[in-house]
Amino acid sequence: MYRQMFFTCQVQYLNDVDPFSYPTLYPDVNPPDHTFSATLPLINQLAAVHRLLRAPHRKRRKG
After folding, report:
1. The pLDDT of residue 22 is above 90
2. What residues does the FHOD1 N-terminal GTPase-binding domain cover (predicted)?
C-alpha cells in the first residue's frame, strides 16, 4: 500500500523591500503552520502558502 508523507512547519513572510530596516528583521510572533506533501513538487504547493500568508504580489505589466 502506498503511503503519502507529509511534514508540517511554520511559514512566514519576510518583507525584504528594505533589508536594512530594523523592524522587518523580526519574525511574526505566531507564524501559521502549513503542511507540505513530500511526494508533490514544491512548486505546486507554493500557491497555497502565498494564500495562507497573504503575501503582497507585484503585478506584471503587459507589453
Report:
1. no
2. 8-58
Number of domains in the chain: 1
Note whether residue 22 is domain-resident. no
Rounded distance between C-alpha atoms, residue 37 and residue 47, angstroms: 14
The answer to whether residue 24 is domain-embedded is no
Residue ranges making up the domain that contains 46: 1-16+30-62
Q: For 24-53, give the DSSP string.
A: GGSPPSSPPEEEEESSS-GGGTHHHHHHHH
H/E stretch holding 6? strand 6-10
Domain assignment present for residue 21? The answer is no
What is the reported pLDDT for 43? Answer: 94
